[in-house]
Specification:
The protein is α+β, with helices and mostly antiparallel strands. The chain has 5 helices and 4 strands; from the N terminus they run βββαβαααα.
């Protein structure tokens, strides 16, 4: 099963006039840009099926964590009908893609980083790093995983209006 080659890719596209980024997996015999909605392929890596599935999981969890963090901080990020918003810069998505692809090559680092990513879903790793709860390699990896969550958009925050005291 692992030997079945897959292309893990990061591409940009447009559907109904709306731009998006897409991280996905296609069989190696399929051309990524055959999809009429995709315009350009920014990253493409030929890897085994199970590896592609694992790495795609980590990338998607990282991106979801990032979106949740931005939403909790009241940043307005558009959600396209497909893929990831162009509000997230390409260089950040490339960093996330490259980090998880490279980390997968080291089993111990991979397991540590995925565990930290799951923790990051609930709390900031900065708290753990500063509290000295993490030691050695775990602390080093936590700092790298946390860096992938530090993006602050140029877009304005959603201004929350208070309801009037009377109606």
């Amino acid at each position: 099963m692992e030997k079945s080659p897959q292309n893990l890719f990061l591409a940009s596209g447009v559907k109904d006039g709306e731009g998006f980024w897409l991280v996905g997996v296609k069989n190696c015999d399929e051309k990524i840009l055959e999809d009429k909605n995709l315009l350009d392929c920014h990253r493409k890596e030929l890897i085994g099926k199970e590896s592609a599935k694992d790495i795609l999981f980590a990338i998607n969890l990282n991106i979801n964590n990032l979106f949740n963090e931005l939403r909790n901080k009241d940043y307005l990020i558009k959600r396209p009908s497909i893929g990831i918003s162009f509000d997230i810069p390409l260089h950040l998505l490339e960093s996330i893609f490259d980090f998880w692809l490279d980390t997968y090559k080291n089993k111990e680092a991979w397991e540590t980083c995925v565990g930290l990513l799951k923790i990051r879903k609930r709390i900031s790793l900065t708290t753990l790093i500063n509290s000295e709860s993490l030691k050695g390699n775990s602390k080093k990896w936590a700092m790298k995983v946390e860096t992938l969550h530090t993006y602050v958009p140029n877009s304005f925050k959603i201004e929350k209006l208070n309801d009037p005291m009377w109606k």
